[in-house]
Write a structure and sequence with these properties.
The complex is a heterotrimer. Chain A is mostly helical. Chain A has helices at 15-28, 41-48, 52-64, 83-109, 113-127, 129-132; strands at residues 68-71, 75-78. In chain A, β1 and β2 (75-78) form a beta hairpin. Chain A starts with 14 loop residues before the first helix and ends with a helix. The chains are: A mainly alpha, B alpha/beta, C alpha+beta.
Chain lengths: 133, 300, 332
């Protein structure tokens, strides 16, 4: 299992949420491929030195979000069906969270609506130059 | 199922109240962290739980039953201070366990000794504080208990062995064991535990799941356009535990509903954000409510 | 449950073993330098009497007769009660000095009578080593060990209760298991000491003089005497973390109290008499002396040997019971 998750236990973000984010990101960018097996709850808990029930909770939520599926006795796997959709959904989940966070930050600094929109436009132009034309 | 149920536990030593009406439920198969400043009553709570000291009031139930000596077949306790016999060797301590506990696993004991690089022939007298802790942990884990009560299980250990202890706890938890442990190292509790209780002066200050606490406990920071803003609407708000205003800045310590509060304050015209708190922040905030806001000023 | 106490007892037995072994070794080393032996008739007039055929008399005694040096005639009459009369008749004495002599020397009575050319020396031996005394000596050694082992629960209380009380056994059974192991250890020390004394006596040729009479009572008293010390120390120290002070006061007090009963000053005599009720040494004095001479108790009159045995038994049982009551209430 090549995917490496990094957990910041000292962050204010609950560890299971961090783990969900990390798995979704890995799926979105293709580090975790459809059908690929995830480490067992125990293995991941030991690797990351975090509570096993926290890992189990993250896996349950990932299953609910249809990112992974668990075959009893065989372990948890990245879902195979509609991989692209899963990945995109996963990606967009992560992106929405990041965008929300960024916009809230911008707002708290005191930027107004049009200033924030301009910032977003600049960022989009930078990363999607061809589509813009 | 509730593995350990502590009900209104109180312990007085003369006029000193070591534990004051403390209650907690520890679910089977979970890891429970007990936090508190020195002298908060953590060790006394453990002693009362395990029948080593008689509670002044309250009760403790294990799986619904009062403590019976036979339970110690399945329950291991590692106290904070060393209780090993100086004049005996590590091997003799393990032999003592083998004779007393039917579930003692000699092979596991050897693995554990190797993990901490301990030799059976060594006399306890020659061991450092950390090595004594490690020996006591080897004895406890080799008994293959269902319930582990560990008082400061990493004290005196170097970071490598501290991590090894955390992994032992996690491994045991993955096998469905119930673990209660206290630690001054909040980061360790944050990693290994799901549920915590924070004690101070014998009282339970905060209890619950770490995830829920992190989701609920926030500092809401609002910056108004003028320092003449009104906080009248927040005066009786049950969500607000502490309020502090400095010029145009208002800081609110909340235990729940931070997002809604951010929205309301935004509507009032403030630039507002909710700051996440880690367990250390939550601990400090609980023990001394003035701390967090001070910290945040430093962070800003 | 009793493994720790077992290790403690084994360490104690090893220590006692070293001491008794050293005593035995010293006895062996010094044997060649000792003059003769306890057994007076290993050699009489240069002859070993055991090489002379014995003639058995009607009363069960045996007579050996032989010629010693210078034509002296030796007759040894050995009686079943292990007393002997040795008569040496020197026909060529032709003594100048008159008068008879009578000398008593320990268990020997020597008398000489001069008559004409003859001088007849009679040596009466009455060497008896009562097993009772050996048992009491062994019991005293065991009692010293018992006072040390009596700190058992106090030692647990010195920082080990968390280990002792988190075993799958009740506090009572843990304590009683320790008491049982210690008691066996104490009796073991008594036995080892007795064997050592007998061996030393054997080395010096005295083993055959050991007489057994009413020894069962002494055995019982000795064992319970040692155990009563154990019970007293256990009861006195169970609530303490360190019982060393109790120990250092206990022996002097136990030894002095029987003597203090005669003191008239203040009420000291009365106090001592009362305290002697729980003093095993007082019962030992009473046990060893005749009933008329002992008046060291007030609460318990001296009812004789059986009462003394019962008293030390009660001290042991009461001590253990008191310590259990404390042990039950202790907190880690």
């Amino acid at each position: 299992m090549p995917a490496v998750f990094t957990i910041d236990a000292r962050s204010g973000v609950p560890i299971y949420l961090q783990l969900i984010d990390q798995v979704k990101r890995s799926v979105a960018i293709g580090v975790l491929e459809p059908g690929e097996q995830l480490p067992t709850v125990k293995q991941l808990a030991l690797d990351l030195t975090i509570n096993p029930n926290t890992v189990a909770r993250a896996y349950r939520d990932l299953e609910r979000d249809e990112v992974i599926e668990t075959a009893s006795g065989r372990g948890s796997f990245v879902r195979g069906n509609g991989t692209a959709m899963t990945a995109r959904k996963a990606l967009s989940d992560v992106a929405v969270d990041s965008l929300t966070h960024a916009i809230r930050e911008a707002k708290s600094i005191g930027l107004n609506r049009s200033e924030v929109l301009a910032l977003v436009q600049t960022a989009v132009d930078r990363w999607f130059p061809k589509e813009e034309q | 199922m509730t593995a350990i149920s502590i009900r209104n536990l109180t312990k007085n030593y003369g006029s000193f109240v070591a534990v004051n009406d403390f209650s907690a439920d520890i679910e089977a198969g979970t890891v429970f962290g007990l936090l508190g400043p020195n002298g908060a009553g953590k060790t006394t709570t453990f002693k009362c739980m395990l029948g080593l000291a008689a509670p002044t009031a309250g009760s403790v139930l294990f799986e619904g039953q009062p403590l019976q000596p036979a339970l110690f077949e399945r329950l291991a306790y590692v106290p904070e201070k060393s209780v090993l016999y100086d004049w005996m060797t590590i091997g003799e301590h393990l032999e003592m366990q083998r004779r007393a506990f039917s579930r003692f696993d000699a092979g596991r004991a050897k693995e554990l000794l190797a993990l901490f690089d301990l030799g059976e022939k060594k006399k306890v007298r020659s061991l450092s504080k950390g090595m004594r802790t490690a020996t006591a942990l080897c004895m406890a884990f080799a008994n293959n208990p269902d319930i582990l009560v560990l008082d400061e299980p990493t004290s005196g250990l170097d970071p490598v062995n501290q991590r090894a202890v955390l992994k032992l706890i996690i491994d045991a938890s993955a096998q469905g064991k119930t673990i209660v442990f206290s630690s001054h190292q909040i980061g360790q509790v944050e990693r290994a535990a799901e549920n915590i209780a924070i004690m101070q002066k014998g009282k339970l200050l905060v209890g619950g799941s770490i995830d829920d606490l992190k989701a609920g406990w926030k500092i809401v920071e609002a910056i108004f356009d003028t320092d003449q803003f009104s906080t009248n609407g927040l005066a009786g708000d049950s969500r607000v535990h502490r309020m502090e205003r400095t010029g145009r800045i208002l800081r609110l310590s909340v235990h729940t509903g931070a997002d809604a509060l951010v929205d309301e304050l935004t509507k009032m015209g403030a630039n507002c954000r909710a700051v996440d708190l880690n367990l250390e922040d939550i601990f400090l905030n609980a023990v001394d409510p003035a701390t967090v806001t001070t910290d945040l000023v430093e962070k800003a | 449950m009793y493994y720790v106490e077992f290790l403690r007892v084994m360490r104690m037995l090893r220590l006692v073993g070293y001491v008794l072994g050293a005593v035995l070794l010293l006895a062996l080393v010094f044997r060649p330098f000792s003059h003769g032996s306890i057994n007076v008739n290993n050699s009489i007039e240069g002859v070993d009497p055991s090489t002379i055929p014995a003639h058995t008399n009607a009363d069960g005694s045996t007579t050996r007769s032989f010629m010693g040096k210078h034509g002296r005639h030796v007759t040894i009459v050995a009686r079943p009660d292990k007393t002997e009369t040795i008569t040496v008749d020197d026909p060529a004495y032709n003594g100048k000095k008159g008068g008879n002599e009578h000398i008593e020397f320990g268990h020997l009575k020597v008398s000489t009578s001069n008559g004409g050319r003859h001088r007849v020396s009679t040596i009466d031996t009455d060497l008896k080593i009562p097993l009772n005394i050996l048992l009491v000596i062994a019991a005293c050694v065991a009692a010293i060990v018992a006072t040390l082992l009596g700190l058992a629960l106090s030692r647990e209380n010195d920082g080990h209760l968390e280990l002792a009380w988190t075993k799958p056994a009740s506090r009572e059974s843990y304590a009683l298991a320790s008491v049982a192991v210690d008691s066996l250890g104490i009796l073991g020390v008594m036995l080892a000491t007795l064997v050592t004394i007998v061996l030393v006596l054997a080395i010096y040729g005295g083993a055959s003089y050991i007489t057994v009479s009413d020894s069962l009572t002494s055995l019982l008293f000795g064992m319970l005497f040692a155990l009563s010390f154990y019970g007293i120390v256990l009861a006195a120290t169970s609530s303490m973390r360190r019982g060393g002070l109790v120990l250092s006061l206990l022996w002097p007090a136990a030894l002095i109290l029987p003597g203090l009963v005669r003191v008239q000053w203040m009420n000291l005599g009365t106090v001592a008499r009362t305290l002697n009720t729980i003093n095993p040494v007082a019962y030992l004095y009473a046990f060893l002396s005749s009933p008329q001479t002992t008046n060291i108790f007030t609460l318990l009159p001296n009812y004789g040997t059986a009462a003394q045995v019962l008293a030390v038994l009660l001290l042991f049982v009461a001590g253990v019971a008191l310590s259990l009551a404390q042990w039950r209430r202790l907190e880690a």
